[in-house]
Each structure stands twice: as C-alpha cells, then as structure tokens.
Design a protein that fits this description.
The chain contains eight helices and eight strands, in the order E-H-E-H-E-H-E-H-E-H-E-H-H-H-E-E. The protein has 266 residues and is α/β, with parallel strands linked by helices. Helix 3 runs parallel beside helix 4 and helix 4 packs parallel to helix 5. The protein starts with 6 loop residues before the first strand and ends in a 13-residue tail after the last strand.
Length: 266
C-alpha cells in the first residue's frame, strides 16, 4: 500500500507504540486520527506532530475504546473529517490482572469491535474501497505468561480472532488485509504495570521474576515495532499473518500447520 494520501485511525495513539505508529504513518504521507483516552497526553501528542507535519494532517479524538458508543463515534469523526478510511491500528491495551474484566474489554473486546467497525467502512462487501487492519497483540498471545493469565488470554484471543477474520475477509472478498503483531517486551509505559500491586493483584509477587525476564530477553524499542507495521502495510501478500518481534530474531513470523478444511462460498 502506498500510504501517501491515505487515512489511518490508531487507538492508544497518545504514547508508546501508538504514537510511533502515528508518526511513521504521517512521515509516509498519510493523515491520522489519534484516538486515546488520555486527553491531555493526546493533545500534547497532536501539538508535537502538528509542528512537524502540520495541523491538517492529524485529528485527536478522546475515546475510551472499551465503550462501543465512543469507539463508533471515533470512526465516524475520522471519516467525516478526512472523507475516507484506509488503515486501522487496534493498538490500545492495558495490563490489569486485578480488574481483569477491564483487561478483557480493552485488550480483546475493543479489538474485535474495532475490526468490525473498520470493516463496515472499508469492506468492498459494504461499498468500501478495501484497506488494512493491524491488531496489536503480544508474544503472550503465543506463549503463556504465568504472571498475567488474563492478559495472556486476551492476547491469544486477538491472535485467534485476527487469523480467523482474515480468512473470512479473503473468502468473502472484503478487500481488507488483517494481520497481527506480537512483540516481546517493548519500552512503553505499559511495562510499569508489573510494579503496581493495585493493578497486578496476587500476581504482583512475580514482579522480580518478570524484571529478570526483561533483562534476559531484552527490551525492544518502539521503532522496531514500527518497522513491523510498515512491512505489513507494504507487503500486499500478508493476510492473517502473525508477526513476532523479539530482540534476538527481530521481525519474523509464527508458522502454523493448516489442517482444517476451509469452507467455500457458493
């Protein structure tokens, strides 16, 4: 995909991976809707990006992705403002084992809902022009993390949903490629959650072992995750791919053995 002139919506865009996604998309000529719950951080992010790319190239929308109403409104504001939608990055996420229902709502439910809303705008089946959806998961979506069982469940859910809906898109002719990125530990504010007993609850006792894991495996810079995003956007054959990003191997893919017979549309 040539990003010049395209429109992207990024959730969790005010900081961390989401902000880096937004900046990269702007650098490649796209216009970006910055969607985030944190109003002050989001406005500061937009102001900084405006200085480099111009105010007309981005739009900040305060949104709790866990709210169906707010998420639908964010998509509508984006298309009303920019006139189209080509790329959606469902990136917003939390790590809160204590409030596990919130973790499920933000990490999994909002990704599913965000994908379905995106398809309403982009699918050729509903009059759209096609596009790309990128759902951000984690290596915890492939390997279990004992210090975060609910976080693990949500990220496994994102991987499974993305692979399945990508196959649906191909079989149904949506014209939308859907892929997921599974990074290891990334240098973002989310890492600090393991130090918060209020968020981790009974799993707070694992904080020292998690820190040892971080030291052993290393911590990724968000710029490497951006490289993964651009690879997905630019390589048209990628659909249903599960991209892993680690310190030792960089960008690579999880390979699954296909054993199920896929349905055919008649």
């Amino acid at each position: 995909m040539d990003l010049n002139g395209k429109v992207a919506l990024v959730t969790g865009a005010a900081q961390g991976i989401g902000r880096c996604f937004a900046e990269a998309l702007l650098k490649h000529g796209a216009k970006v809707a910055l969607v985030d719950l944190n109003g002050s951080t989001g406005e500061a992010c937009k102001e900084a990006l405006d200085g480099e790319f111009g105010a007309a190239c981005s739009l900040f929308i305060t949104c709790d992705v866990g709210s169906e109403e707010q998420l639908k409104r964010a998509f509508k504001k984006t298309t009303d403002h920019f006139g189209r939608l080509d790329v959606v990055c469902n990136n917003a996420g939390v790590n809160n084992e204590n409030d596990w229902e919130k973790t499920i709502n933000v990490n999994l439910t909002s990704v599913i809902r965000g994908t379905y809303i995106a398809l309403e705008y982009m699918s050729k089946e509903t009059g759209g022009k096609g596009g790309v959806i990128v759902n951000v998961a984690s290596l915890a979506g492939i390997f279990p993390a004992p210090h975060g069982p609910v976080y693990t469940a949500t990220k496994h859910g994102v991987v499974g949903f993305t692979r399945a809906i990508a196959a649906t898109s191909m079989l149904s002719g949506y014209g939308v490629r859907i892929n997921t990125i599974c990074p290891a530990f990334v240098d973002t504010p989310l890492l600090n959650s393991v130090n918060c007993e209020e968020m981790m609850g009974k799993y707070y006792k694992f904080k020292d072992s998690v820190k040892m894991m971080m030291q052993h495996y290393g911590i990724l810079e968000p710029s490497l995750i951006v490289q993964g995003l651009l690879k997905i956007l630019q390589e048209e054959e990628l659909n249903g791919a599960v991209m892993k990003i680690t310190k030792s191997k960089g960008i690579h893919f999880e390979i699954y053995e296909t054993t199920l017979i896929q349905p055919e549309l008649k």
